[in-house]
Specification:
single chain, 13% strand, 47% helix, 3 helices, 150 residues, alpha+beta
């Protein structure tokens, strides 16, 4: 039943995107059928207007934001999910260690002739630390799922 509703929704979205008419037909047994023309034998059929598709451009990515990894597909085994989460955590930790050295433009001179780190440096380090927190959560979730599945 859910699959048929999903297919109907996809069909409606596809036809709406093309600007074609969509009809809602009520059959004698009370079932509702959507299509590009009224269903034969329907006791009631009417054209329905659909709202425009909700498609928006993604916002531009920040250049200093660390790369995120997509969630693992559900078809992976729990052991694979744990291994991948451990690998992602190690990568995030390595990125933080490699990123501790200030990049060009992240130091500013002071009146006494010394230098200090800019806010951009601390923001970059914070984002690298947040990536570690996210990777650790992903690992914790994968471990919990593996424990629950056994």
């Amino acid at each position: 039943m859910r699959l048929s509703l999903l297919l109907i929704a996809l069909a409606l979205a596809a036809t709406a995107a093309q600007g074609q008419a969509v009809y809602r037909s009520v059959m004698p047994d009370g079932s509702i059928v959507y299509g590009d023309k009224p269903a034969p034998g329907a006791k009631e059929a009417k054209e329905v207007s659909l709202p425009p598709p909700n498609i928006a451009k993604p916002p531009p990515a920040k250049p200093s934001a660390p790369a995120t990894t997509p969630r693992q597909p559900a078809s992976e085994s729990p052991d694979d999910q744990v291994r991948n989460a451990e690998r992602d955590l190690q990568k995030a930790k390595a990125a933080l260690e490699a990123g501790r050295e200030p990049q060009p433009g992240e130091r500013i001179g002071t009146a006494g002739g010394a230098s200090r780190l800019t806010d951009a440096y601390f923001e970059r380090i914070k984002s690298l630390e947040n990536a570690i927190v996210g990777a650790q959560k992903k690992l914790d979730d994968a471990l919990a799922q593996r424990r629950g599945g056994r």
